Amino acid sequence: MARNDIEDKLDQLRRIKSGGDLNSVKIDQIVILEVEIRFLRTFIKCNHVVSPDSLVKITKIAQLIMEKVHSVFDGIPDEYKNNHNLERGVFTLLESVQGNTNLRYNYELNDSDMWNIWIASIRT
């Protein structure tokens, strides 16, 4: 997911938070969700310095954020759900994390294969 897409989703959360008849609990949930999406965004940007084990944990965090989106939207008027397709945005964010994880593992696998080929060429 591009940086602009993430920023758009965060803007949508801000509009939902400020634009309706929400109680303080819902507003607090939205604030926490904003923080979690920013946290996830940071690791998407910096995935090249994150260990493979951490990428797996980040994917799990992204899945938890998806679940949180559903709980936050319970009780929010449908007009906000329809106008601000946040669930789709978080799903795209999750796909991005999983894609980065898969690319990272593929890169390591390819690097390992190259290493084995190089070792084999030295021995012959």
User: What is the overall number of helices?
Assistant: 5
Our count of domains comes out at: 1
What gap, in angstroms, lies between the N and C termini? 46 Å
Q: Identify low-pLDDT runs.
A: 103-111
The fraction of residues in strands falls at under 5%
Helix-strand layout with pairing:
Elements: H1 3-18, H2 24-45, H3 52-73, H4 78-83, H5 86-123
Helix pairs in contact: 1-2, 1-5, 2-3, 2-5, 3-5
Keywords:
124 residues; 5 helices; mainly alpha
Describe this structure in words.
This protein is mostly helical. The chain has one domain (3-123). The protein has helices at 3-18, 24-45, 52-73, 78-83, 86-123. Helix 1 (3-18) runs antiparallel to helix 5, helix 2 runs antiparallel to helix 3 and helix 3 packs antiparallel against helix 5 (86-123).
Brief summary:
The chain is mainly α.
